[in-house]
Amino acid sequence: MKLKPVVLSLMLVATPIFADEPTILPSVTVEGQSLLDEPGVSHQDTGEVLAMPVDGGDFLRAIPGVSGIRMGGHGIDPIIRGQSQTQLNILLDGAYVHGGCPNRMDPPTAYSPIETYDTVTVIKGSQTVIYGAGGSGGTVLFERKTPRFGENQFVRGKIGGGYTSNSKTKDLFGDIAVGSRQGFARGIVEYQDAGNYKDGDGNETRSALSSKSGNFILGYTPDEKNRLELSFEATRLDDVLYSGAGMDSPNSENDTIRLKYENEWGTKLALYYSKVEHVMDNYSLRPLAAGKKKMRVSSNSNTKGARLSHNWLTDNDLEWTLGIDYQHNNRDANRGAASVSTPTTLQSIMWPDVNLKQVGLFAELEMPVRAADLLKLGLRYDRVTSEADRAKQIAMGGVSPNSLYSRYYGKTADVHSENNFSGFIRYEHALGDDDNFVFVSLSRSVRTADATERFLAANNSNPAERWVGNPDLEPEQHHELELGLFWQADSWDLNTSVFYNLVNDYILRDRAHAQSGILQNDNASIYRNVDAEIYGFEWVTNVKLHQNWLSRLTLDYVHATNTTDDRAIAQMPPLSGSLNLDYKQATWLLGSKLSFAAKQKRVDDDLNTGSGLDARQTPGFGVLDFYGRVAINKQTVIKLGVNNVFDKTYAYHVNRANVDPFNPEPVQVNEPGRLFWFNFSVKF
Fold it and tell me: Is 36 strand, coil or helix?
């Protein structure tokens, strides 16, 4: 297919029908060209990023159809098609990294500083079975791709940095590779230090953090046919503050080891081990609130896995991919409590030494049909087992995880096993001879309950502050129908799709109201299976207005209902989009971006009758940013801009409720007010 421009920005004001009061949203912007034209797929070169995303989740929010949950200044948790957490398969250079916080302070994207990756691919919906079980909402691939060294080439690199006002964020990075045609060594480092930012009303938002990471890659490339890589990565997050949580994180650490091999005959092997150690408390980085005990949670999340696949093309143009993968995640977390001194009493066994193991077999086939049509098929089988080895251990008050499970579900933890089958079929019909096509796809994806949903055991004397997993959960079963169109003319293109997802046994986080299968009516946070439907659409149009003027319109919408209770599902983004305009010359660019969202009225915000996970009905907004880029020479690029030009106050609907007792005015964690940013990069 032909490459199409991914344009940015626009010099318009917010359309009034979308906003109760126009507001301005600072955003990350991505320029350049899309490398994949398929509807539902976005492939971005991280070198084309404008502004300074704080992590991979912040970067993803700039992609049409992707939202993200903000709790503080770091750890933006992505949402695709109304689905998040383990409904998304997120791989960091081929490895799964599961965070150490049950409350999602550190989703996988928290350990993905965008400067250390080369490309990011977002595959929306269930369009592949290669990258693991589930993935009903989509798959996100953060990848490092080190080019082979050519003849008489021995070193190359890139260094850069930047500054953002408001939060006074300083960012530095370096990426240097040395080698020859037979191999290479590559080192990547990143450092970021940020203070608290202020929203448009001047309220200080607890969002400060310090982050540093290092990655060392050894590559062996003896010839054009074989490639072997060994890498070690370390990420350290210190003094991370959160307005959307009752705790902060003094430190969080991730170490990941990867071994990858591939050859020209289509064989790929990946082995990885990731270790996360996460600490959070309510006293070391903030004054202890009146009447509160000191609380400290220490947790570990260790994941090891492997994937072996082989891809080949037969004489009749059938392209096959067969493979096997394995993943084992162990999570263990304790919460300590004390009235005065450092917490020493075991108050809760949050994750009681949980082991979740998955072994999968998968196959995909791509074959031409007729002259230019294409048929794609995928099938996957997963054997899943889970258990909690410390479920019988007793904590404060003689309460064990098993006693909490029994209290709310009448069950105790045991070894749970599943046999899950997933697959998809997609047919693309060509329209003429210009790479235009329509497609229809039908898929089934099955997601098992994660460690939090099945085994979390957070006790409290106040039942409404308990949070208890359900060891008896059935896996989610998503059945999605999608229709799409790609059309490209001389000066414009259209990329759009609509989807309908019927979900059996949707895993719903809810409050205990004595529903079917729930034994209590005390407002504790619990999990249960319900039936659900999720539907929506995505629309992207690029227009070349003139030789140097590029414009873009995007729209996306998702509607999700708990059909068992006829109730809206919480944390769904409203109708959103952007309208853009760029003026681009060979060595410089000027542009602006208008983003907008409708008011979200479909909420589940009542603690007494629902889940209370939505903070409120969130007002709509319109958002304007300006930016520019200039290439000083072939090696040096400078970028700068201003976000939230009108210094307005706003929040994404999916942002967490503000629970900062020292700044209680905001309802949700607001986005930053006006900020100026600058960054540069030098290649050699």
Answer: coil
Strand pairing class (248-263; 267-281): antiparallel
DSSP string for residues in 198-251: E-TT-PEE---EEEEEEEEEEEEEEETTEEEEEEEEEEEEEEE-BTTSS-EEEE
Q: What is the signed CA dihedral for 509, 514, 515, 519, rounded to 10 degrees?
A: 90
Query: Residue 422, Cβ neighbours under 10 Å: how many?
Result: 24
| Distance from chain centroid for Cα 89 | 9
Upper half-sphere CA count for residue 346 (Cβ side, 13 Å): 14
Q: What's residue 16's pLDDT? A: 32
Q: Report yes or no: 603 and 7 within 8 Å, Cβ to Cβ.
A: no
In degrees, to the nearest 5, what angle opens at C-alpha 252 toward C-alphas 246 and 254? 145
How many residues appear in the chain? 684
What are 399's two structure tokens?
């309460």
Q: What does DSSP assign to residue 108?
A: G
What are the boundaries of each domain within the chain?
4-683
- Report the distance separating Cα 603 and Cα 612, nearest Å: 9
Pairing of strands 549-562, 588-597: unpaired
Helix (H, G, I), strand (E, B) or coil at 452: helix
d(CA 203, CA 199): 6
Q: How far apart, in whole angstroms, are the C-alpha atoms of residue 280 and residue 74?
A: 14
CA-nearest of 538, 634, 655 to 67 is 655
pTM for the structure as a whole = 0.93
Say how far apart CA 125 and CA 82 lie, in whole Å.
10
The answer to whether 140 and 131 are in contact (CB under 8 A) is no
Give dist(CA 53, CA 73) in Å, integer.
10
Q: Which residues contact 157 (CB under 8 A, 6 or more apart)?
A: 174, 175, 176, 177, 683, 684
Closest C-alpha among 576, 562, 551 to residue 503: 562
Q: Which amino acid is at 395?
A: A
CA 18, CA 14: separation in Å to the nearest integer?
Answer: 8
Q: What is the mean pLDDT of each run of 10 residues along the chain (684 residues)?
A: 32 33 42 53 86 90 92 96 97 98 96 94 95 96 94 94 96 97 97 97 96 97 95 98 96 98 96 98 91 94 98 92 98 93 92 98 95 94 98 97 98 97 97 88 98 98 96 98 94 95 98 96 98 97 94 96 98 96 96 96 94 96 95 96 95 96 92 96 96
Answer yes or no: are the C-beta atoms of 635 and 682 closer than 8 Å. yes
Question: What CATH code would you report for 4-683?
Answer: 2.40.170.20
**Token pair 């409050």: residue:** 511
| Residue-wise burial string across 370-399, b where 16 or more C-beta atoms lie within 10 A, e elsewhere | eeeebebebbbbbebebbbebbebebeeeb
Q: Which amino acid is at 155?
A: V
Side-chain half-sphere exposure of 512, counting CA atoms within 13 A: 23
Q: Round to whole Å and give the CA distance between 307 and 325.
A: 4
C-alpha to C-alpha distances, 139 to 44, 60, 80, 132, nearest whole angstrom: 14, 12, 9, 9
The C-alpha atoms of residue 594 and residue 577 are separated, in whole angstroms, by 9
| pLDDT value of residue 570 | 98
Q: CB 65: neighbour CB atoms within 10 A?
A: 27
Contacts (Cβ under 8 Å, ≥6 apart) of 677: 51, 52, 162, 163, 164, 165, 640, 641, 642, 643
Buried b (16+ CB within 10 A) or exposed e, 329-349: bbbbbbbbbeeeeebeeebbb
CA atoms within 13 A on the CB side of 136: 31
Q: Which tokens go with 70?
A: 């903000």
CA–CA distance, 543 with 245 (Å, rounded to integer): 43
| Confidence (pLDDT) at 339 | 80
